[in-house]
Amino acid sequence: MLPRFLQGKDFLLGNRLTCADISLAPELFALDIDPAIDEMVYNKFANIKRWACNLRSRPALQSTDKKWNAVIPFMRDHVLKNKGKAATKEDIKTMTEI
Q1: pTM for this predicted structure
Q2: pLDDT at residue 6 in the model
């Protein structure tokens, strides 16, 4: 549904960033911890990839994205090693120190 909704638009409600984009973006970016995100989402759905790129090009998001990108490698490693098991207290402590 999202790929069709984004068709012909830069953002969810047109060509301007709105609260709708800001509300949904964290859900999409949380998927970045999955090593297969490119294969499962971005390579299959060009509209979602374009929308994510549009969001990530915004200066306000770039500062928070920088922090999130520092955590992603650790989280991907955790997912692969632990086959989706919940993070331990030690894992969470490590993530907060990154």
Answers
A1: 0.70
A2: 92
Handedness of CA 21, 24, 27, 28 (dihedral sign): negative
**C-alpha span between 74 and 69 (Å, rounded):** 10
Residue 49 near residue 57 (C-beta atoms within 8 A): no
Q: Comparing C-alpha atoms, which of 65, 31, 62 is closest to residue 49?
A: 31
The phi-psi region of residue 30 (left if phi > 0; otherwise alpha if psi is between -120 and 50; otherwise beta) is alpha
**What pLDDT was estimated at residue 98?**
56
Collect the ranges in the chain with pLDDT lower than 50.
none
In the structure encoding, which two tokens stand for residue 31, read together?
A: 């998927």
DSSP 45: -
CA–CA separation, 72 and 46 (whole Å): 22
